[in-house]
Protein 1
Amino acid sequence: MSPARGTTGWGMVLPALAFVAFFSLYPAIDSFLLSLYSEFPGPEPAFIGFGNYAELVQDPVAHQAFIVTLGFVLLSTTLELVLGTGLALVIHERFMGRGVVRAAVLIPWAIPTVVASQMWRFLLNDQYGAVNAILFGDRVDAYVPWLADPWMAFGAIVLADVWKTSSFAGLLILAGLQVIPDETYDAARIDGATAWQRFWHITFPLLKPALLTALLFRTIDAFRVFDLVFVMTQGGPGDATQVIQFYGYKTLFTEGRVGYGTTISVTVFVATAMLSLFYIRTAGSKLLQREPA
Amino acid sequence: MTGLALRHIGKTFGQTRVLHDVSLEAGDGEFVVLLGPSGCGKSTLLRIIAGLERQTGGSVSIGGRCVDDVPPSERDIAMVFQHYALYPHFTVRENLAFGLKIRREPTPVIEERLAETASLLDIDNLLDRRPKELSGGQRQRVAMGRAIVRKPALFLFDEPLSNLDARLRASMRVELKKLHRRLGTTMVYVTHDQAEAMTLGHTIAIMNHGRIQQTGRPDRIYQEPGNPFVAGFIGNPPMNLFEGSYRLHPRDLEFRVGDLTVRIPFQAHDLVGTESGTATLGIRPEDVTFDPPGPRHVAIAGTIDLIENLGGDAVVYLTVKGQSLAARTVPGLRQHAGESVTAHWPMNALHLFINEHRVPLPSS
């Protein structure tokens, strides 16, 4: 490459590089540095090395938050993939009004999480929520305080997340379905495969790359869940729905422990980064390769 | 009896009518080729035979049994698809065995059939590979193997060679012919390639715009095309067709297009209807020569536009009396592009079409 072309090339990528450096790299590095201090670095910063990390390893509240987060990730991701596959299979079929159905399916995903969370909070409100009204009508004494019970509150945030993001998983899976040639199904029909056998022997194996992509996106997103909990339960009742990100937020902004709160954020960042690397290592090569036609 | 009978098949997709009253028969062991340009409905017809599409009207019988309400898997057919349709996540062995496993054939039977088919198609050494590890030709063999292994009563081929390069296509064509001779099973083969149709088919059905234009033996279709479409579709380069007008005289028919007039010996009673009208006159490029004319030859002076030398023969494009004419001849013509030449052809090589139908000429 000639020097002139090299300069032009650099000129073109520089804005993007600067953007990434300023908005992603700098905050990440600065956060990491911040996590090495006990207080907000002032005139006399209290540098404590990995002290905050040592504390995090021993913190029972953090352990509980991790367990809640893992439970949330496992349950919501599994449900979203199963429902997403179902949705994708339905909207992949040709039927009257398919376009409308496809658009309708995407509505929950298009609603901002904060709005959706608020909506679910209203729906599940123990006094004037629609869920109680529909289930029990006038029998006010039977009304269930959905968000006040630890298990039901946990179920509620899972439900809200599944409602909101199954369609996103469905969309990714639909893309996977659309690259399976119709001829493959025709061949299977002539071979004598029933609808279920076609799904099990053809669709499912060929859908694996798309399922893995959806799994990757959904796991990472679920691991970082924050706004849903913030709006619906504030981590309560007790610590029943306190996910790790929310614990970090509380530590940092409510308790003012900048160093420790940042440590939690950095830990979540590292955990999701490792999760991504793991997926890309195990499934990435398969995701990138396409079967020749 | 494992022949095929299609009776008055019609098919519409929404408002579009893609097949009109198609009737066709294939005897036991016969190799029938459906030939036509893209979009003529030939693949749809094949899919109807397979049961992958439902016809709007008419009926399909395989082996004397009406199969209109029979699903594809129970029609005792196997199909080879244009893009092979191999299961990409299965090995060749699994691809071949899938249909048999689904039908719960006993393992020894599956193993035996697999070995038999693999050796027949010479794919023994590919059994543990996946489709993406195979070349186009190898995939084609596996696709055929998947059909053969089931021992169906009827084979359906949907442009199976169209994704192969010219050389491989020619060799696969020969193998397919041998395979048919060996298996003796009824085959229906869809293609837009007339060379495949001419070499493979016992019978060719030429289709256009959802209708069968002509059905018959390949040589008969070539020598006596039933209408201008068939005349222009079969043959390479295609038949020279002139659309003009005719007038009947007591002993002959005068055909006129622009400045070109040809008088053809003709008996008036052969022509139903009018004394004059529009007609299409055809002459195959291989029937046009530049040698000294024989008796009963038409001779016309023209100018050479272009000569294509193809090695074994040459195609000469010329203009005669304002009309374009192609001639297929041996290479080594003395004249060059831009020079005058006299082209002629025997009278009995002419093809005459009136009202889209072939009119037999007494001399042909």
Protein 2
Amino acid sequence: MITFILNNKTIKTSEHSGTTLLDFVRYQQRLTGTKIGCREGDCGACTLLVGTLNDDTMEYQSITSCISPLGNAHGKHIVTVEGTNLKHKLTTAQEAMKANYATQCGFCTPGFVVALTGFALSNSENNYSNAIDAISGNICRCTGYKAIEKAAHQVVEKLEHQEKNSFKWLIENGFIPEYFESIPQRLKDIEGKYINQPKGKYVSGGTDLYVQKADHLADNDVHLIAEKDYLKGITIENGICTIGTNSTVSDLWNHTELNSILPNLRKHLKLVSSEQIRNMASLGGNLVNASPIGDMTIFFLALNSDITITNQNQKERHIALKNFYQGYKKFDLKEGELLKEISFKLPTAEFFFNFEKVCKRTHLDIASVNSAIHLSVENDTISEAHVSLGGVAAIPKYLHNTSAFLTGKPLSSETILEANEILQKEISPISDVRGTTDYKRLLARQLFFAHFTELFPNNFTLNDFVQHA
Amino acid sequence: MHKNKSNKVLNTKLDAVSLSLKQSIKNLDSYTHVRGESLYVDDVNIRQGTFHAVVFDSPKAHGKIKHIDYSKAEALEGVERIFTYKDVPGENEIGGIIADEPLFAEDEVHFWGMPIALIVAESEFIARKARGLIEIEIEDLPVITTAKEAKAKGSFINAPRSFSLGDTEKAFAECDYVFEGETFSNGQEHLYIEAQGAYAEPMENGNIKITSSTQGPTAVQATTARVLGIAMHKIEVDVTRLGGGFGGKEDQATPWAVMAALATYHLNQSVKLILNRHDDLRMTGKRHPYESTYKIGLSKDLKILAYQTEFLQNSGAAADLSPAIAERTLFHATNSYYVPNVTTKVLSCKTNLPPNTAFRGFGGPQGMFVIESAIAKAASEIGVSARQIQEANLLDENDTFSYGQIAKKVEAKNTWHSAKNIFNSDALEQEVADFNKNNTAFKKGLSFMPITFGISFTNTPMNHARALVHIYLDGSVGISTAAVEMGQGVNTKMMQIAADVFSIPIDKIKIETTNTTRVANTSPSAASSTADLNGKATLMACNALVERLKLVASEDLNVSEKDITLKDESVFINDKPSELSWTELINSAMLKRVALTENAHYATPEIHFDKTKEKGHPFAYHVYGTAITTVTVDCTRGTYEFDSVKIVHDYGKSMSEGIDLGQVEGALIQGIGWMTLEEIAYNDDGRLLSNALSTYKVPDIFSVPKRVEVIPVETEGNDMAILKSKAVGEPPLMYGIGAYFALQNAIKAFNSNYDLEFHAPMTPEKVLMGLYENKK
């Protein structure tokens, strides 16, 4: 039985675990405040909160329920807009939306309300930028967002004196109903892990699989792995950072030490989907999706990462990520094998890392071209270089030749211009809905230049490159 | 000094706007919206035994159907029945203006996504599974995807239309400058977040009730009756509200409602048909792409003396609303400018795309984009700023539009100069110039965009509406009109009118669903006119009731009728409260057997248009405004951010400042989306490539301008508008056109060899290519 608390009600269901959470709450439970906009995690109209009990405290995250398997709700507190409603008045988030004219047709509105409530419940620091991140996955076609920005400001203002991790404060200040206080104890009472899982397609966060084949997953057995502990966790030991493939993008975002190693991590991850999707999407899923444009793949390729693969007998093998991809959507993973973890060597002092991504829409879009670079520079000489480029070949591309060329060269505009010539020979972009061949080639060059103007602003400006390119 | 002074003016104005927003009425529907309690078609409780339907559509853009095998699909457990054109008891025809569009394909398919059959099953899931089991064989026929191709092959929807004023040919000969060129503006997906859908229920005696997400309940009713071959009174259409429409549900909500009703007709069971997003994107039409040519002639002092265009409208595979949209393109071809010699022509080109349809602006934006392109081209060639040409040609009082209407109460110059003064555009332009001098990796661009948009359905007979107002015996009020609430706040406006006339609190008033049995034979909620038409009708009905109630009060209080007013839920005599309350007055009226229900009919006066002469007075009034857009382009990556859009807008006397500002901002962002990110793509076979939200990007919260400032221009308003509060739904969309030209100006600042191209949208791809083309 899948057991969880839906708003203020304990649910025990033998529904198929691969059904989407959206269909379950909307059509089985008749909670119609959760809307269907796109069924691919791209609009946020179906946003729900997932509360997890961790050491006596509740942690809430927003998700798009259209691409989330019902089975992943097991042991959680699931909150829909109805579950935030107070009896005869509006919650603080709802009032902010109303007072600022932030709702017009109203169809996207519950998603925004839930996401803003999730922000109030979350551990993120209370500021406007974080509040906007919280609703970054919500599309509104009516308002043009300016009114929603005002509503977000109002929520941030109301949270000014918030006591973090205090349901009591949030209840007293009208953010959530009283029953939230009973949730931790009630979750403890739910019988442990959901273990009797059938064999079937491995599904972690589901953010990609449910976009590709939701009907298939709702009609066939799935094997849910999102809660498997041995695939989780981020450890930093002996100069190596190891990340379990079940880690979500948000896990990376929230990891303090990782953020100090890669100081621009959040800036880069902000370009990777929306907060709702970052809360669900697993790193392993992005790697095995094998999209030539996978953001996290491009990111970790430049970190020269290794991956650990395990089979059903727990037997492990290791392989460099750059050797994992064999052709379009083809990779070195056999039947019954799972990606277990990814690891990379911690950088030395003279370490430079940058990630670039350009798409039609800067956020929550798939790249036309993305790229990452990792350089070690000693005495103005590049001692180590790893460059990756997405959207320019059948696989997420580690640029062997360009990387090799850069190694040992002086850090100069001549080197970079020459490296671009090699880079252009290494890639073979095709024209598609994300851009023409010519555009992708030009963009690849520009992003390559951008790495250097970003990382070495005192050495290079755009002019150094384009005047001679 | 000058700058500080101006900022003070601006800040005072912004404070005033901010205060008016605090005091302005909130959207009546926001309480249930924010609680997730508003009911859309998919939220309405369904009856036991309801079937669910999925549409089987053409996998080719043009061809002959050789063979279809439904047997495997029909055999699937849970499938009830599959309906095709053979099951249509009446006419297999849904075309509104021209009868050229079958509900279901018969022998041929004309676009990719054209409905062929309706699969009805116990669940949507089963129906979709069954769809995958249908086998179809289609013999390919040649596919036309562009308007130019259609023109070359002589493939048109109807005869071309042409407006003219003065003598264009003669005028060109006298011009100091003449420029010609081509433009393209792409389509645009409506992307209402609520997809198309309907729910049909069998009633007694073969009657059918349809709950539809439509802007045009009467269109649904009439078309269903036609397809089923039964009388209109047997069909009741009810609309609770729409999760966005934007024109996409004016005509194209109809087929899904008709299909659901057809299945209900045969099965005598309720049937629900809600399109999933991919089906919706593939099967429905969009804003029309236009390929146009222009010729513009100017004098030395930058007066536009002559203007000539040919608009090729990509209408898609059937007429839908294309002829009306084409017409509006001609009405707005000269935007806010007075041009004494104009020849405009539009050809509705028949292609193998889904029939393109109404979209906020209704052909107007496509027309305006062309003249703005022509001005940009002329400015660039002459070596002046586009702003100078725009400013030299703004419309004045008593100028003649190319369609013969004389411009009255014109605010074109007023909004333009107000925008310049309030926002200190000289300083803004200087800031942009300074920034560009001091930066190489980023460049800024600025543009002006004036708008003039005519209000009324250009098809004069459609300009009418009705309101049915009941006062219940406890003094509460229920109002039915033809207006469909789709986010524009029309419910709130109707309520405000009644609350104002009756002088009762808003919680005593309920706005009912839009229902064809209460208000019949309606025009769709469209053309920005919904609040005007239905509001005037509501006002008339409420006034009539008040007159009757005053008579009752005068008898009860024994005073003259003319001394009586209704105020604060009481009867006032000579502005002083009497002992008679609103509720007592209603009670008294009941006892006196006075009718407490009123049905009023409003038809816009003064308007007319003669299509044989292409002259007349089609618009009740025009809406004016000016936007100044500033953008920053990242010249490394080709990406961009809009710094600000500063607008002076002509609301007339806004009756609901908060709601109207929401319309301006929302339309602006939609217009910017059309000009920048939103890129519809079909391949040569006519298959939609931008077929999901992952490939079709609308603006998100990060991609909107950092600042949007909207200052109302102070005018007298217009009596043809409801309470002098002008229509606001569509006009501000065209401010978004400024985004294109701001981007172009930024590109030019980086790359002086950039060849001006007018090919919207200006995606990051086009920006980057522009930044580096012929770059020395």
